[in-house]
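BUG-324 | component: ligand-complex export | severity: low

The export step for zinc ion jobs runs without errors, but we want the raw record kept on the ticket for reference. Input record follows.
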Amino acid sequence: METTITATWQVVEDYQRLFVNRRAYTMQSMRPCPESGRHYYFRPNKKGSDIPLMLTDETIRQHLEGKITVGLYAINPSTQRCKWVAIDADYKNSMEDLLKLQYHLTQDRVDPALEMSKRGGHLWIFLATPLLARECRIYIHDLALRLGVPVKGTGLADGIEVFPKHDAICAGEFGNAIRGPLGIHRGANRRFWFYGADYTLEDQIAYLNRLRKVTEEELRRFIAGKDRPAAVASLAQLRDSLPQRRQRSGGSDFRILAHVGGGRKVGRNYITRCPSCADSGHDRVGDNLAILIEDPRFYKCWAGCTKEMIRAALGCPIRVRSSA
Ligand SMILES: [Zn+2]
C-alpha cells in the first residue's frame, strides 16, 4: 500500500483543465470480476437510482488520491472535439512502437508525454484548444501508417489503440473511455506515472502544464491533403507484415463480402457502407468500411466500429470460444 497522497485543489483544477472534456465518466470496479479476475469499468449512478453521476472536483480528487479510479471520455458530443489524444499500446514490443511514435511526433514539434502502464504505455498529446476528433485521428493514423506501427481493429489483435476511437459521436453516446492518468490501476494495484517528471502529483502536473500544446492551425497543416484512403491503406500494410499463415481449420468461415458486396475499389481496398454504422443511421455516404481486396479477412471501419460490432450488425456475431 502506498503512503497517503493528498491532491491540492490546484492539482485538481489543472487536472480538470488538461483531461476533462465532458462530465460523463466511468469507474473501475474495486473488486475483480470473480470469473475473469479483471477490474471492469462501468458508468456509475447515484446510489439506488439510474441517474448517472457526473465528474466533479471531488471525484477527481478521490481519483488522484487513489480512493477510486475513473475512466475519461475523449470526445465531447456537443462539439465533436477533444482536449487530448491518447495512444494506448500494451502488446509485446509495444514500447518500441510508442518510442517510434514519440520520436516522430517530436519532429513535428509535438510534445507528447509517455505514461507507464501495466504492459507498454500510453502516449498523451495535449491540444491548445479542443480539436476535432476526426482531424486528430487522421493525424495519428497517418503517422502510424507511415511508421509501420500496427493499429488495433484491422484484423489483428495487436496494435495501438487511438483515443478518440471515433470521428464523431451522437448525443447520448460516449465512445470509449481510457483510465484517467495518475490514479491507481486496480488490476495492477499501483499508480503509473509519466516518465517526464518526479513521482509526485505536483511535479507531474507541472510537467504536463509545461508541455507544448498542439494548435488547430498546426494540426490542419499536419493533415493537409491526407484523408481516409491513406489511413485505410494500413489494411494492406498489416496484411503484408503478417507471416504467411496456413488456412485455419474450422472457426473462421465468415466472409464479409458475402454480406456487404464489393462496393467501389479504392487502391487495394473495397470501400463500402459499414453495417454497424448503418444500423445507427450513420455512414450515409457509404465510405466508412474498407475491405482488403486480396484478403477480405481484413476490414476496418474508419469511424471506429469494432469487428465484434460489425459482425453483430451482420447477424453473425463472433462466437467467443469457451475455455474448458
Ligand atoms: Zn462503422
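Assignee comment: Attached the raw record above. Residues 133-147 form the longest helix (15 residues).
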